[in-house]
Amino acid sequence: MTSFEPGLPHLTDGSPPEVALGFVHSGDEPGDVAFLRFLESELGIYLPWEETEAELAAAAFI
Q: pTM of the prediction?
């Protein structure tokens, strides 16, 4: 179990979300973009880019 608030590392609890999900960034695109692509391809979770610019509600991935 992990929880985090992007941009506020002091509110993180548990493993970083990338580590907990097995994400490894190894490309030229920014890490947050690569992580969103990873969520979509590996877990079927799609977040429109516009939604990432807004304040998001908490979510649990189990």
A: 0.52
